Structure formats: structure tokens, C-alpha cells
Amino acid sequence: MTKKALITGITGQDGSYLADYLLSLGYEVHGLVRRVALEAPETRFSRITHLLDRVTLHPTSLESYASIFHVFSKHDFDECYHLAAQSFVAESFADGFSTMNMNINGTHYVLAALRELRPRCRFYFAGSSEMFGNVNEVPQNESTSFQPRSPYGISKVAGFHLTRNYREAYGLFCVSGILFNHESPRRGFEFVTRKTTSTVARIKLGLANELRIGNLDAKRDWGHAKDYVRAMHAMLQQAQPDDFVIATGQTHSVREFCEIAFAEVDLDYREFVKVDERYYRPAEVDLLIGDASKARRVLGWEPTYTFRELVKEMVASDLAELRSESAGGDFSRKGAKVQSSTNHV
Ligand code: NAP
Ligand code: F7E
User: Fold this and answer.
1) Distance (Å, rounded) from C-alpha 200 to C-alpha 233?
2) 130 included as an active-site residue
3) Any ligand 1 atom below 6 A from CB of 102
4) Neighbours of 3 (CB within 10 A)
5) Catalytic pick among 27, 87, 130, 166
């Protein structure tokens, strides 16, 4: 029988790759989107343009229990991937309240609606290496303690505990993936990798002359989003619910990322990168490196992209995108299947 999956955050980097992956496996894919997104599909749906005619979208507010309840009352999903979140750490310092409200309550509402209406539906929570924060162990695994350094990290720790509590208290199949940084050509422009590769492309084409950036010494375990969405799916196929770290096991500094990205277009990053204090965070996570041996052993999961391949793909994609924009590229609008919700939400 065809499996039916719901993805919150389907318009984001991971949601779009996960939708691609589940469709390739024969799933019926549904997504929750903000109502406002329907007003500007050209920008809001840019990552899912290619699959709009193969998914069903539900305009829903994740800040309203009634709105989420309504979707679950109409549809019996086999799997729910809860990816929607305010995901930019820097923004969480600027507005901790909205990050907390969205990330914690949104997760709680989805879990509560599942418990009430669809207790058989399996649930995935998008946990994060930011939960480890000020790490007391290198590399970090499923037993490493959480010492978050940002409102974003704190909100993810709360979501992680909520997810575990619903599993233990109500017997729901609820799991958290503790995913380390993962990037791609679909990454948001504000994250350091895409900010770098998009600016490298602009510099190469003569449209910019510098990259203003913050802490070059921060180190991250960067993988490719395409690899990481396979792990999300694998977690929901297990006999027992459990949490997993997903990471490459290698760490690189922001400086190394810049060096390789500029070198891809035969430029020396030292000539273009300008450190700007505005991009420093009030509290930094200095070093992240994950130990995904449990995922390798239990899920049979392996990353397929190397760090260099990731950087190369992102630079090439940004160059191609910019060249096509300069040549007058166009957004082709496709019809999405949008299910109307009730008027009161
Ligand atoms: P992303 O590209 O920023 O996508 C976030 C998604 O959440 C978008 O679909 C966005 O919708 C939606 N969203 C944000 N605020 C919302 C709100 N108030 N109401 C409804 N929807 C809202 O993030 P991502 O990189 O795909 O990450 C997916 C999830 O994994 C997030 O929970 C993130 O925190 C977590 N995570 C990411 C990484 C990583 O390295 N990428 C690592 C660990 C965990 P709009 O398009 O309408 O804004
Ligand atoms: O920063 C440093 C910055 O914003 C990476 C999210 O997906 O991964 C992501 O969070 C590092 C930090 O990602 C700039 O200080 C220097 O040390 O790309 P980022 P993040 O904060 O690691 C985790 C796992 C998530 O869960 C999050 O949702 O780069 N950095 N200069 C900079 N960062 C940015 N954004 N911009 C700079 O100019």
C-alpha cells in the first residue's frame, strides 16, 4: 500500500530534498506551508517548484493547535517529518521569543495532535548538533550532554525532550535525529556556506568585490543535505524508536570553507574576505564534530559526499544560477494541489 507522509517545513532545504526522496520511493507526500507562502509562490516555493504538481500542500499555522489538529483530523499519515523551525541561530539571538514560540510550541502542537488523533503515525523531530553547544566531549555522540549556547539550541533541546517524553509517556513512535550541519545548493543565503559560495560567484562574475564575514575559526562538521534526508527516513523504518546522531565525522573551519570555495574559481580568499564584527555571535559554538557510528551500524547509513565535493557543487550551482539570471532566467509557475483549511484558522 502507498505510504502517506507529512512534511512540515517542506519549503526549506531539507523538506524539499526529503520530498524528492519520498516521492522517489513511491510515497504520497503532503506538506504544511504558511498561508502567506501562497501569496508569493515564486519566492516561497522556489525549492519545490519542480515537484509542485506531485505534492499536496496544506496552508496551516504551526503556531495554532487548531490549525494542525484540522489537518490530522482529515488525513491519516503513516509518517510525519517535523522540520519546520526558525533555523537561523543568529536570528535566535536577535529574537529569542519568536524562535522559542515557534520551535517549542510548534513541536508540542504536532505531537499533541498526533497523540490525540493519529497515535500510529511515526514522528521525526529535527534535532540539531547546536544542542551540544559548549561541547564537553569530542566527537559528540548520542550520550554527549547538551549545553546549548543560543535560544535556537535551547529550543531544540526542549523539542528533543518533548519528543522523548511523548515516546516514553504515551508509547508513540517518536524519534529525534541529531543532525550536524548539512548544506547544499538549496541552503538559505544567510548561512555561512551559501553566503560564501553565492558571494564567490558574484565576485567571479564582477558583481561584488568582498565577502564580509564573522568568526573564521569556528569549526563545523558539514555534510550534504541529500545524504541527511535518507537518514531521517531510515530512522522511521526501524522496529523500535530511537535517536541518532547524523554527521560525517570530519570537521573544517569557516576559513577552510572559504579557502576551498574561492580556490574553485581560481581566487585567493585572503584578497576578498573581510572580517566584520557584526557577524560575530554573542555566544559561539567553537567546535562540532559528530560520531555517527550508531547510525552506520543500525541504519546502515553512510554519507556519500566529501567536503570538497559539497563545496564544489555549491560554487558551481551558484555560478550557474547567476549566469542564468543574467541571461534572463525565468520562474515557471506550476499548479500546486492546495487543500483549503477551515475559515477559523
Ligand atoms: P530551512 O531551510 O530554514 O527551512 C525551515 C522550514 O521551516 C521552511 O520550510 C520554513 O518555511 C519553515 N518555517 C520557519 N518558520 C516557520 C513558521 N513560523 N511557521 C511555519 N513554517 C515555518 O531549514 P533546513 O536547513 O531545511 O532545516 C530543517 C530542520 O532541521 C529545521 O528544524 C532545522 O532547525 C533543523 N536542522 C537543520 C540543520 C542544517 O544544518 N540544515 C541541522 C540540524 C537541524 P518558509 O519557507 O515559509 O519560511
Ligand atoms: O554558522 C560562523 C558562525 O549560520 C556556522 C543551522 O542549520 O547548523 C546551522 O547553524 C558557523 C558559526 O550555521 C559567519 O558563527 C562566521 O560558527 O552557517 P551557520 P550554524 O549556526 O552552525 C545547525 C546544526 C542548525 O541546526 C541550524 O539550524 O559560521 N560564521 N561568519 C558565520 N555564520 C553566518 N551565518 N554568517 C557569517 O557571516
Assistant:
1) 34
2) yes
3) yes
4) 14
5) 130
Which residue ranges have their beta carbon within 6 Å of ligand 2? Answer: 87, 89-90, 128-130, 180-181, 190-193, 195, 213-215, 218, 220, 254, 279, 281, 284
**Contact of 201 with 322, CB cutoff 8 Å:** yes
Q: Which domain holds residue 134?
A: 4-182+224-246
CATH code, domain carrying 235: 3.40.50.720
Q: Are residues 254 and 242 in the same domain?
A: no
On the question of pLDDT at 87 being above 90, the answer is yes
* pLDDT tens digits, 116-132: 999 999 999 999 999 99
Same domain? For 200 and 171 the reply is no
152 part of the active site: yes
Residues 148 and 230 in one domain: yes
Q: How many domains does the chain have?
A: 2
Output the nine-digit C-alpha cell for 219. Answer: 569549526
| pLDDT tens track for 282-317 | 999 999 999 999 999 999 999 999 999 999 999 999
Residue of the CA atom closest to atom 16 of ligand 1: 85
Pocket residue to mutate for ligand 2, from 192, 281, 284, most atoms within 8 A of Cβ: 192
| Domain contains 293 | no
69 & 150 share domain: yes
Q: Does one domain contain both 148 and 274?
A: no
100 CB less than 6 Å from ligand 1?
A: no
Task: Give every CB contact of residue 187 below 8 A, 6+ residues apart in sequence.
Answer: 13, 193, 194, 225, 314
pLDDT value at residue 38: 86
Among 92, 128, 150, 155, the active-site one is: 128
Residue 320 lies in a domain: yes
> Do 28 and 132 belong to one domain?
yes
Q: Which ligand is nearest to the CA of 60?
A: 1
State whether residue 96 is helix, strand or coil. helix
Residues 12 and 30 grouped into a single domain: yes
The DSSP letter of residue 50 is: G
Q: Is residue 313 annotated as part of the catalytic site, yes or no?
A: no
Do 176 and 125 form a contact (C-beta atoms < 8 A)? yes
